[in-house]
Design a protein that fits this description.
By secondary structure, the chain is of the alpha/beta class. It folds into three domains: 3-94 and 174-251, P-loop containing nucleotide triphosphate hydrolases (Rossmann fold, 3-Layer(aba) Sandwich); 106-173, no CATH class; 269-525, 3-Layer(aba) Sandwich (Rossmann fold), CATH 3.40.50. 33% of the residues lie in helices and 25% in strands. It contains 19 helices and 24 strands. The strands form six sheets. A six-stranded mixed beta sheet has the order 6-9-10-3-11-12, with helices on both faces. The radius of gyration is 24 Å and the shape is globular. The termini are far apart. The relative contact order is 0.11.
């Protein structure tokens, strides 16, 4: 570790570890999730835990937080062995955790969620005034800036995460676990979170940062421990390593960070949106305002923009999840599908990887194999005389498991809610890319995936393009936008404000369009695939 950084952050190497997990083994039916893993966290350190989807990162942290009991191994805090039977024990030891999928009550206010379970009382009544004062002091001190009276269901994902952080600070936790904290955040929210985490470390908090995003780890962490397939690979000082070395440790091979693809050869139009308008459910302004564009065979068109500028509503209208305003027109393979059902679009050439895998992509209480045929169980291949051919469903799910490296404890019969977020995403990607289609709508397709899986998915999307399919990509990741797309359409406040060629632009110019500082009216009016002069 850089001695200057250690001194600046007051990372203590002369005292026992703040947390030491020694030789931890945790098993589930059919899988050893953690196989003899040792992890050592120093006082005041930001320690990253890196690994592929399903490598055992979240399981190890769940052991530390008392959600699981290990079969073998010991946990030490400040050099003394401790027994953590449940999250209450963890909180009493000063250990807090922000889970990948937040543990908030949506109909409660931010303040109620923060103090839930530790409400201060006076003569048997909750003393909300004192709690509010302390929450606001913490919010201001750490730059979290939350509205204590807002309902959780009405605030952004970034604000929900800040609420979770305040829950930990309110309980005086000094060991903070962040489980995939940036998986659902916008680039702006990620930058803000990284500054918050660095500020917490400067205050002397010890932080475990679970991620598979190498850029973030290189920016925020002091040391990094790498897991692969449930086993310990090694621990390295961030100052002494590179992204390439970490990716090799994580997946066991070299990973390409640039997408290899030949120049696109677009042909006939597969998909067209004409004067599409969608009303906003929040504001008086339209969420999508008079948007028109075309997508051709053999090209990847990317909708880029800062989150909340109408991309979600655009996709909902295109896929049939939301009704557009009169005058809007959606054409697929020459047919007007504006008023057609979701199933009709699915069975007539449209595949959709949704942005919210839990809300629109999976039935969490169903098995892996059931989720692979959600849109196809009625086809002849999977049913006969009204009865599902379970043997064929099993064969198909095993084919996708093998092709897309979907990892789970019990294979096809694993309940999906028990799988890691990245492997849940792989189910959807495998199902949608494998279905017969002419148009793939991919919204944040690599969200929650590790570098090896991202490389694989990008290669498959390019292969789809090269086979003559049309791809509409919606992404918040600038690197993905620049690497993967053949044309970029930028959305700002519900409108297409520019069409860019990724070979002739750069992230800085793209950022100006995304922020509304720059607008190309010609490109906005003629987003039709090579027709602009």
């Amino acid at each position: 570790m850089d001695n200057n950084a250690a001194a600046e952050r007051n990372i203590r190497t002369d005292i026992p570890y703040a947390i030491e997990m020694s030789h931890i083994t945790k098993e589930f039916p059919g899988i050893i999730a953690n196989d003899d893993i040792t992890l050592q966290l120093r006082r005041g350190e930001i320690h990253a835990l890196l690994g592929e989807n399903g490598a055992g990162k979240s399981t190890l942290m769940s052991v530390l937080f008392g959600l699981y009991q290990p079969e073998k191994g010991k946990i030490f805090k400040d050099g003394k062995e401790v027994k953590i039977n449940n999250p209450n024990d963890a909180n009493e030891l000063g250990i807090g955790m922000v889970h990948q999928h937040f543990k908030l009550v949506e109909v409660f206010s931010v303040l109620d969620n923060i103090i839930l379970g530790t409400e201060p009382t006076k003569m048997g009544f909750v003393s909300e005034k004192a709690a509010r004062k302390r929450v606001m002091e913490l919010s201001n001190s750490y730059g979290l800036n939350v509205d204590p009276d807002a309902l959780v269901e009405d605030i952004t994902v970034g604000m929900q995460q800040r609420t979770e952080i305040l829950k930990m600070l309110y309980r005086n936790n000094n060991i903070l676990i962040f489980d995939e904290p940036t998986a659902v955040l916008t680039p702006q929210e990620i930058a803000e979170l990284i500054q918050i985490i660095k500020g917490l470390a400067r205050e002397g908090k010890s932080i475990l940062f679970i991620s598979h995003k190498l850029t973030e780890i290189m920016e925020v962490a002091d040391r990094c421990t790498v897991l692969r397939k449930g086993k310990y690979v090694g621990t390295v000082n961030i100052a002494d390593t590179t992204k390439e070395e970490l990716s090799n440790m994580m997946v066991g091979r070299d990973v390409k960070f640039v997408v290899d693809k030949e120049e696109a050869k677009p042909s006939d139009v597969v998909f067209e949106v004409d004067h599409l308008t969608v009303k906003s459910k929040i504001h008086k302004k339209n969420a999508v305002n008079d948007v028109s564009f075309k997508v051709r065979r053999g090209e990847i068109v990317c909708i880029a923009g800062i989150d909340g500028n109408g991309q979600s509503e655009l996709v909902y209208a295109i896929t049939g999840l939301e009704k557009p305003e009169p005058g809007s027109k959606i054409v697929l393979d020459g047919e007007d599908v504006t008023k057609k059902s979701v199933r009709y679009r699915n069975t007539h050439g449209m595949s959709h990887i949704p942005e919210d895998r839990h809300k629109h992509g999976l039935v969490l209480d169903y098995t892996l194999e059931q989720n692979t045929v959600l849109q196809r169980y009625f086809e002849k291949e999977f049913q006969k005389s009204g009865f599902i051919r379970f043997g064929r469903v099993r064969e198909y799910s095993e084919l996708l498991i093998d092709k897309y490296d979907i990892r789970s404890g019990m294979g096809p019969v694993t309940i999906v809610k028990n799988m890691s977020g990245g492997n849940q995403q792989k189910i959807i990607i495998g199902r949608e890319m494998d279905r017969e289609h002419d148009l793939l709508i991919a919204v944040q397709p690599t969200r929650g995936l590790d570098v090896g899986a991202i490389e694989f998915i990008h290669e498959n999307i390019v292969a789809l393009r090269d086979s003559g399919k049309a791809v509409l990509l919606v992404s918040l990741e600038l690197e993905e936008v620049m690497n993967l797309s053949d044309r970029i359409l930028v959305m700002y406040e519900g409108e297409i404000v520019g069409e860019l060629d990724p070979r002739k632009t750069n992230p800085q110019e793209l950022g100006l369009y995304m922020s509304g500082a720059k607008r190309d009216k010609a490109g906005a009016d003629h987003a039709e695939g090579g027709e602009r002069q």
